[in-house]
Amino acid sequence: MTVSTVDKNNSPSSRMVLLKEIKDRSLIFFTNYKSKKGQDIDDNPNICASFYWPPLERQVILKGIAKKCSENYSEAYFKSRPFKSQVSAIISNQSQIISSYDELLKRYDKFLEENKNSDLKKPTYWGGVEIFIEEIEFWQGRENRLHNRVVCSFINNKWETKLLSP
């Protein structure tokens, strides 16, 4: 899914993340909290996630509030990940400038060799982010450009639905 955040200077950023869980009114992904998206969420928890299916001409946009998942939840997911994925989460200083990709690979290989028989611990700076959905917009493209748009807003513990002009 594409996740969009806004930093403390109101500058937007979007990136692809792996959606790991869908709950009743929330979505969960995992990240390095020191990354740009992690810092953006700390500064401004308003977040937008979107999905687009070009062959179907369909899009879904979800807006809400992002909150960090519990340490126990994040730890359980971290332990379920493949060992090499755990290593990547530990050694990557996500969003930081590196001198070369080879340097990153060397750090990865060295850590892998030194810890190949270890039970790795989740870094404190890594974990889940849960998006609590407050609004969903469904968009269906139409050949005549009169696209069908429906927005659903969660207000007073119930969903309100409205049609929008394209």
UniProtKB/TrEMBL annotation:
Occurrences of domain Pyridoxamine 5'-phosphate oxidase N-terminal (ranges): 1-104
Domain (Pyridoxine 5'-phosphate oxidase dimerisation C-terminal) ranges: 126-166
Keyword Hydrolase applies: no
GO biological process, one term: pyridoxine biosynthetic process
InterPro entries for the chain: Pyridox_Oxase (IPR000659), Pyridox_Oxase_CS (IPR019740), Pyridox_Oxase_N (IPR011576), Pyridoxamine_oxidase_dimer_C (IPR019576), Split_barrel_FMN-bd (IPR012349)
PANTHER family: PYRIDOXINE-5'-PHOSPHATE OXIDASE, PYRIDOXINE-5-PHOSPHATE OXIDASE
Co-factor requirement: FMN
One Gene Ontology term of the molecular function aspect: pyridoxamine phosphate oxidase activity
Name of the molecule in the record: Pyridoxamine 5'-phosphate oxidase
Keyword Transcription regulation: no
Species of provenance: marine metagenome
Gene3D superfamilies for the chain: Electron Transport, Fmn-binding Protein, Chain A (2.30.110.10)
Pfam families: PNP_phzG_C (PF10590), PNPOx_N (PF01243)
Keywords noted in UniProt: Flavoprotein, FMN, Oxidoreductase
